[in-house]
Amino acid sequence: MKKYKLKSIYLKQNAKDPLQVKESDTQDLVVLRVGDHEVGTNNYHHFRVPVHATVDIRYEATDQKSIFRLIFQQDQRNLSIQYFTRDKDEHHYIDTPLNDELIQSKAFQRILQSINFSGKNHFSYLVNPVQRLKDQPF
Length: 138
Description:
By secondary structure, the protein is mainly beta.
């Protein structure tokens, strides 16, 4: 089974200054919880993000051969998932289609189940409870 670790999180709040995200008293904030799984433990990281921000989360395989990119557009309640694999010859990552085997894998399911947005008006994109998966030993 491949293992993935949290690589980075980016926020884009507005078109004028996409690299700067400021907190203010008038801004609605939610708590973003993301996690990565190590042998026997889940590590969770918590971030305060504006409700109207676009959140870009990237997970990298521990062998550095693939990357998952999850983009949450808060305003539209959209979720976009991209998968990249490393091209040995070109030494860069190329966009690769998701397949059923990958989507149903334990590693991918753990990534999705570790992401949660909560705040004044609780919401989350992914509401599936942690459950036994096909590739999990009994």
